[in-house]
Amino acid sequence: MIDFTFEKKDSLQDALMQLHTIVALLRSKDGCPWDREQTSKSVAENLLDETYEYIDEVIKHDLPGQKEELGDVLLNAMMLLEIQEEQDDFSVVQALNDVCEKLIRRHPHVFSTAEVSSSGEVIDLWNSIKTNVEGKQSKDDDFFSRVPSSLPPLEMANEIQKKIRKVGFDWPHVDGVIEKVEEELSEVLQAKDHQVNSDEDLEMELGDLLFATVNLTRFLGYNPSVALHRSNQKMRDRFNALYQLAKKKDVPLDQDHLDEMDQLWQEVKSEETR
Fold this sequence. Notes:
Blueprint: H1 12-27, H2 33-37, H3 40-59, H4 63-86, H5 92-105, H6 108-111, H7 119-133, H8 153-166, H9 174-193, H10 200-219, H11 224-248, H12 258-272
Helix pairs in contact: 1-4, 3-4, 8-10, 9-10, 11-12
């Protein structure tokens, strides 16, 4: 047993220090076996989960939920810092100093004499500093070498398109992006109806359609992962409502009752608009 008493703190410094202390205690030899077993990879995955849970609360405009999930995000970030410090990779203080120094360096329009007139010029200045001052350049043989290879495919598509946009290679107007989505859908339908020896062409065309849809989402200013996350949640909520109605009305969920299920589905949707 570790002798520790929680106290509500009044300052940011004291609150962060208490979180750091608790995380260190949990990771100590007298702490929690589960916390000691966690690795950078497992905690990073938890961080992603908690970030999406925070997004859920933002979408629902739930302030208590946002507060709780942001706390969980900070917990996992602090756990990652603690693991790196335990491994003598770097300290928490070094990581915080580095990010503060980077923020000052990349905002000369705030902390020095550089001038910008728009957020677009801010991005151009930011990218120029990353390339010319920090030396963060793509490899000679791979323009996308700075796009993390561990990204899931949806996020990877978005990051590839964003990087291409940075050098000006982008659609001039949204109409062109919409036409590209329609073109890719047409090619999917053509591949579906004229398959010869394998499904490879159809699979590639489906991938092109997904890529074009990600492009449209990005062009309109939305994150495709968040957009799909919201649609997933909407489908879960609607089908769970259908599931409850089906149980209430003794409607089996199977192929023989598709008409009844469709009626329940329309009922659920109509309830959402009231």
